[in-house]
Amino acid sequence: MTTELDMMKLYSPQDVADVCECSAQTIKRIADELRLATLRTVGGVRLFTHEQVVKIQAERERRERERRNG
Length: 70
Hints:
Helix content is 63%, strand content 6%. By secondary structure, the chain is mainly alpha-helical.
């Protein structure tokens, strides 16, 4: 169950990768391809909103289905 607090949280590429069961590099590549405007930490780490995570998950699932179906 998603709460309003969860929706306000920011997620690192590794956080998203853990949910999507792939690498952080894959998450970064998908974000680039979807042209998601992400926030960045002072150190340059991308931060994703809940909405962006949902978009990335949907794209990752679409790609997996496409890969399986050839």
